[in-house]
Amino acid sequence: MTLFDRFWKGSRAGAEDGAGPPSGFFPLYESNRPLDDEDDLSPRPRASSTPDFDAWDAKLAGIDDALVIDEKRRLRWWQRDYWRTRSKLWWTGRGIMAALALFVLLVGGLAITAPLSKSLEPIAPPQVTLLASDGTPIARQGAVVEAPVKVADLPPHVVEAFLAIEDRRFYSHWGIDPRGIARAAWTGYGGGSTITQQLAKFTFLTPEQSLTRKAREALIAIWLESWLTKDEILERYLSNAYFGDNQYGLRAASLHYFYRQPEKLRPEQAAMLAGLLQAPSRYAPTKHYDKAKKRMELVVQSMVAAGYLTAAEAKALPDPRIDVRTRDGNLPTGTYFADWALPLAREGMDATYSKSVLTTTLDSRLQSLANRIVARAPIGGAQVALVAMRRNGEVVALVGGRDYRKSPFNRATQARRQPGSTFKTIVYLTALEAGWEPDDTIPNTPIEQGSYRPKNARGQYSDQITLEDAFAQSSNVAAVRLFQAVGSDKVIRTARQLGITAPMTEGDPSLALGTSAMTLIELTAAYAGIAANDYPVEPHAFARAEQGWWEWLTTRRDSMSGGTHEDLEGMLRAAINRGTGRGASLPIANYGKTGTTQDYRDALFVGYAGDLVVGVWIGNDDNTPLNGVTGGSTPARIWREFMRGALKIEGAPAPKADTSPDPEGPVQPLDVIEEGEILLGQDGTSLKVDSDGVTLTQQGVPLEVRVDGQGVLVQPSAAPSPPP
Predict the structure, then answer these.
(1) Element holding 175 (H helix, E strand)
(2) How far apart are alpha carbons 243 and 256 in whole angstroms?
(3) How far is 477 from 150, CA to CA, in rounded Å?
């Protein structure tokens, strides 16, 4: 700095005062070199009268800029100054690059989120017809979907009708039609969506109305246009679009409305079908022919405007005649069994356009019997459910309520209710496996210690009681004491082995009385495992192949010892012969247990006889108490009446003969009430109506009631002979 100051001050002083050395000459250092003549020969620079301050300022500014650039280079992206110092041009370029990258990622991601293969699948589950085990159609559900169409095989006027009304510039745009959007915005008619966008909408997206969905729709449309030809897009659109009356796809609609293949459609027919796409339900010609005709006329006008038809050709088109020959118009809304079985069927089905016909395990005779008995049960306004299955879990009859049309809620498979004393069977099974014997005794006195103090029904107690008697009389205090003696963990383990998945808390003594809620079908399957002595049993609606040696080795199964199984069945038999289940007694060997929950909120009977395992439940949907109904009253008698008819005891009616059931024929109304015995009360009173008259049975005494021209005759009838 000293040298610079000398230089600067000296130059300024010489310029201002006129003193000092000659202007422009500044000795910066003193040399010891001797002077000679040769030095005088070299040219000497001419000094400037004034210094170039602008040049010095420019040089200094360049230094400052270099320092700023170096400082920016040293900044990191997480520092605020790194972003504040960027120019608008920099930001604009980076924004454009980011938008392009995002677009590429979104379109590329559609290969995963919207695979092209999905556009080949029907948008609605195809129709499935369920057959009973004897081949009788029992339910038909699902959309009517036929084989896809090929654009090359369709007449030109068929394709032109759809293009004229839906997307005239289909073959010229790239998935999105800006002109169509502008026209829709200007005129207020139409949504401006192309056929490609509509395919994207009903194939990949939900029908919600939002900007986000429209943006996704546009992206998917571009994606489809990038990978598919125009004809392929049009084919998939025509093969999946909804045409009303549960018809999906052009082929299904053509067969349904005009009973002809789409390859043979006439121009007026094609125009009417094309007009349905805007509002299929509102324009369905089977219900609103006038509206469909007006819409068809608009399509024809569009075909003329697009040059597909001349005005004379359009005027000459006749009104299409509807020709509906399919037999799907009177399909039932569903059945309890079908609602349970169909999801199981579709789990193993591939996405296909073809119809399916599946044979179930349902027995049409037993289902009709169950529906008749349940419909006539004297339960007032309460609901009822019944499950009947083979010992291997094949469900042969299922009732989920009194009337499916009024309430499709399936109380056999969906409702979780307390099983009550029917759960005691698992407690006693655990005790038998732990070494207890049916003749072993247990205190039957009131429980006066602890926070949980259950009571016996009707206040009946005793000092000691055998396990068999306690089970037959359904003693609550004995069951709780036995539960505590064997351990809650062991009882829960036994329940799990039997296939019960309901939540159960260890250490909770109320579990012994069936306070853990479960479905009726789950409880009945547990009893099926007991009946077969092979568990767990999984309820199923479709026949299964016999288990092979590999499945036998790899599948875990449990069973009781022969002695334990015999002892448990002895207890179940005692409950019917001399216990709470006397209302379910049959002249053949039968086994079962009653169940009644607190305040009479649920009444159950579950048991087995022959090759059938049946569970019956009665209760209110709002969980309000029943009017004194117990498991040993109405549920037990419903169980008995069903078993009598199912096992053909005491002259049960024979099933209706059907030599050649047609899978494509009408669905059989298995819930129609047939002739039979009607229960009139909980005391066993019944009424039987047949061709011979009316028979009233009260407390086991049959009375014959006849009405003729002479009046009403009531007299005791001959008692039926006992079975052999």
Answers:
(1) none
(2) 10
(3) 74
Q: Which helix (H) or strand (E) holds 105?
A: helix 88-113
pLDDT in tens, 278-312: 999 899 999 999 999 999 999 999 999 999 999 99
What are the pLDDT digits (tens) for 41-68?
Answer: 555 655 556 667 777 777 777 777 777 6
Both tokens of residue 35?
Answer: 């002077």
Q: Are 628 and 382 in contact (CB under 8 A)?
A: no
Are the CB atoms for 379 and 618 separated by under 8 Å?
Answer: yes
Residue 636 to residue 249: CA distance in whole angstroms: 51
C-beta of residue 443 within 8 angstroms of C-beta of residue 464: yes
The pTM score is 0.67
Residue-wise pLDDT tens digits, 672-710: 334 444 544 444 455 555 444 555 555 444 555 554 444
DSSP state of 363: -
CA–CA distance, 341 with 335 (Å, rounded to integer) = 10
CB 244 within 8 A of CB 277: no
CA distance 402 to 271: 47
Measured from the Cβ of residue 586, the count of other Cβ atoms closer than 10 Å reads 19
> From CA 482, how far away is CA 645, in angstroms rounded?
37
361-391 per-position pLDDT tens digit: 999 999 999 999 998 999 989 999 999 999 9
**Euclidean distance between CA atoms 179 and 185, whole angstroms:** 10
594 forms bridges with which residues in the sheet?
A: 605
| Residues counted in the chain | 724
Instruction: Classify residue 78 by burial, with Cβ atoms within 10 Å: 0-12, 13-18, 19+.
Output: exposed
Ranking 57-61, 112-116, 232-236, 493-497 by mean pLDDT, the lowest is 112-116
Are the C-beta atoms of residues 103 and 116 closer than 8 Å to each other?
no
Which secondary-structure segment (H or E) carries 288? Answer: none
Q: What are phi and psi of 696, to 5 degrees?
A: -105, 125
Q: What single-letter amino acid sits at 145?
A: V
Higher pLDDT, 396 or 332: 396
Tokens of residue 169, six digits: 């510039």
**Percent of the chain residues past pLDDT 70, beyond the cut:** 72
Helix H or strand E segment including 698: strand 693-698
Per-residue tokens: 701: 């005494």
Spatial distance between the Cα atoms of 609 and 227, rounded to a whole number of angstroms: 63
- The answer to whether residue 657 scores a pLDDT higher than 70 is no
User: Within 13 Å of residue 66, how many CA atoms lie on the same side as its CB?
Assistant: 6
For 601-631, the DSSP string reads -EEEEEEEETTEEEEEEEE-TT-PPPSS--T
* pLDDT tens for each residue of 578-595: 999 999 999 999 999 999
Give the residue carrying structure tokens 């006397």: 582
